[in-house]
Structures are given as structure tokens and as C-alpha cells.
Amino acid sequence: MGRLGGFQYREVARRLRRLGFAFDRHGPGSHEVWRHAGTGRKVTLPHHARDMAEGTLRAILREAGIGVEDFLRA
Q: pLDDT tens digit string along 28-47?
């Protein structure tokens, strides 16, 4: 497991909030769309009880324009 392994929805959402993102609307199925107030960037966040896959979290960060180090420090 890498540095981004083992994160659950709550922790990812908390860190996205610290980085300026906010819940925007519900997406398809058990997903949510979050938007950054300043840049307008959108990310789709899966709302599941289990740990988020590392590849999924990396894709979310890439979509959001957030570096791994910035996410881990948030």
C-alpha cells in the first residue's frame, strides 16, 4: 500500500474541504460532485464505506489539480 492507500471517504472529504472544495450536488449512484469556489474545478467523489482505492484517490487529486504532498499536508 502506498502513501495514498487506506483513506476513507470522511478523511478525503475533510482534506478537500481544507483545500477549498465544497459539496456541490449528488452524482450518479453513490457519488458526490464537489466544486472549488475559487477555480470552479469539479471532482467526483465516491461515497462508500470501504477504503478508497489508491488509484481512485490519485485520479481525484489529478482531476482537482492537487499535488499528493499538498493533500497529505492538508
A: 999 999 999 999 999 999 99
Strands 42-46 and 21-26: unpaired
Domain total in the chain: 1
Q: In whole angstroms, what is the distance from residue 69 CA to residue 38 CA?
A: 20
Q: What is the pTM of this model?
A: 0.92
Q: How many residues are recorded in the chain?
A: 74
Instruction: Tell me if 4 is assigned to some domain.
Output: no
Q: Residue 61: which CATH number?
A: 3.30.920.30
User: Is 16:34 a contact under the CB 8 Å cutoff?
Assistant: yes
DSSP string, 21-39: EEEEEE-STTEEEEEETTT
